[in-house]
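Q: Hi! First time doing this. I have a protein sequence and I read that you can turn it into a structure. Is that right? Here it is:
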Amino acid sequence: MLAAAQLKSNAGAIKMGLYSITYAGLWYRGPALSVEQVIDRAKQYGYQGVEIGGKRPHGNPLDMPKSRCQQLRKYAAGKGIEIFAVAGNNDFSSPIPEHRECQLVYAREMMRMTADLGAKILRVFLGWPGVTKVPGQGGRYDHARKVFALEHEGYTEEQIWEWCREGLKESASYAREFGVTLALQNHKPVIKDYRDVLRMVREVDSPNLKVVYDAPLMDDKSEAAIRKAAFEVGGLQMSSHFGGEFDRAPGGGIVSKGSEIYPYFIRAMLDIGYRGYTSYELCHPLPVVNGNTVDLEFADKNAQLAAEFMRGVIAGAEKAPRLKTA
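A: Yes, that's right. Below is the predicted 3D structure, encoded as structure tokens:
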């Protein structure tokens, strides 16, 4: 049961962002949208900002010299949309030094790009297997996960942890130079849960390393567990994400399996004083209809309904009295 102590409701809404992975042409059938088109969708559907995925087709640093970043920054500002974060896909866990050093270069270039875009947050991982795009089949996680498991075979969890800590420590020193905050997400495989995120943040001990705590990644999605994690993360929270597939109900409401966690996650975020973004992502294998994966229209429908759904969740959470403990 939640603690009874309450505080007067604070003004200031959590903002909604659209993560460009939704339109990367990876999961649905059809082409990727350009970053400008993602910004247009964000404006159209009522999002306040965009989070740019740090890989092709949207945000690979090789494709993002300062001039291109400034162009996108100006375009977004003209639409009233904030580029608030970049989502890196780094992996510091490899037993192979050359691989880890390549990842350091990638991470450093991501920080340069983040700064050039005018964003302040670079989402990072400890380990990331990757995703494979198979012609005619869309995105798949299984192949990359097999490669990741084989690469780490025979190495202890603590050794892998040490490699990740070294990479993150060095990256945090670069982040300070660029005026960027790294935000470590509670994303498997190296990280098991949010406690591992907090452990790594303590061990790196840098003001330029904070947290992306996402409720959908929790194994225990009970209200009590989600609130407990929120209060332990507290002021380290820099960003969050929500996902799912949404439909319009016959009565006009919006339904989505798994969406029941978001009202108490958003309420917990408000209770800890968080006023940043929660970013929608459509980032998983999508339905197959009549032998074909759903197309761009499916991504559009979900991005639009997700924004409408989350607006309602945030509005409802803001009306509730604030709770000062978990």
